Amino acid sequence: xxxxxxxxxxxxxxxxxxxxxxxxxxxxxxxxxxxxxxxxxxxxxxxxxxxxxxxxxxxxxxxxxxxxxxxxxxxxxxxxxxxxxxxxxxxxxxxxxxxxxxxxxxxxxxxxxxxxxxxxxxxxxxxxxxxxxxxxxxxxxxxxxxxxxxxxxxxxxxxxxxxxxxxxxxxxxxxxxxxxxxxxxxxxxxxxxxxxxxxxxxxxxxxxxxxxxxxxxxxxxxxxxxxxxxxxxxxxxxxxxxxxxxxxxxxxxxxxxxxxxxxxxxxxxxxxxxxxxxxxxxxxxxxxxxxxxxxxxxxxxxxxxxxxxxxxxxxx
Length: 316
Hints:
By secondary structure, the protein is of the alpha/beta class.
């Protein structure tokens, strides 16, 4: 008597998964029994992430270089994933960049880079996976935005501009897809300990900008453990929740802004006056900005947890 073939694992696509939050989400999905497709722009770090996923979880992994700014590349990614693994059941788009600097040093290319990756990138991925999901009457889409898409913090205007757009897009298509079997979850994290400041971009007085942002993204009271954040986000997507807000601080900030938006803006004005300024528009990496600090000992101490996370999540 013939034995039944093993059940096909569900297939998850994680966009922007060579390191940091995207890689952690890919691990979370693989641990829950999904075959996983991952993409990023850098082949070397992407291949390393894919090997790590295979070895740790024993699932099928497809990796493909893709620049989410290019709709054609995104469509090839979706086609390649389905040819290698099967129909995509879950798509979570994480690709993003972090730019930190004062308004007087912001240039148009800062906005263009942020919007092309974190808004157009989300649009390209969603529009590529939705037709197949609608045809199958099932699918889960997660779009990673940010609390910076609810409240615009100072020194991160291009970032917040893109994230506000991503929230509007995610909530809009969630409504449009009602009744189709396809759900869209707007994922709204606050600061997470992923080690991302070293990969971020800084301008103005880059060293001073890093000196506040690096610790903020590392200290427990201000940031959340990245693996815990990934579990919350994956839970929200798989359950088809419309919105999943991650971290207590993000919940509080969202509610305060909803109740008193004018007060929130005034608070951000006060914060802006306390943060460093600078008109130098030259952009440097977080690693370089940190190296340029005259005395980095305090910053090194305050970013200890973030540095450890960076080593674990392929940020080095």
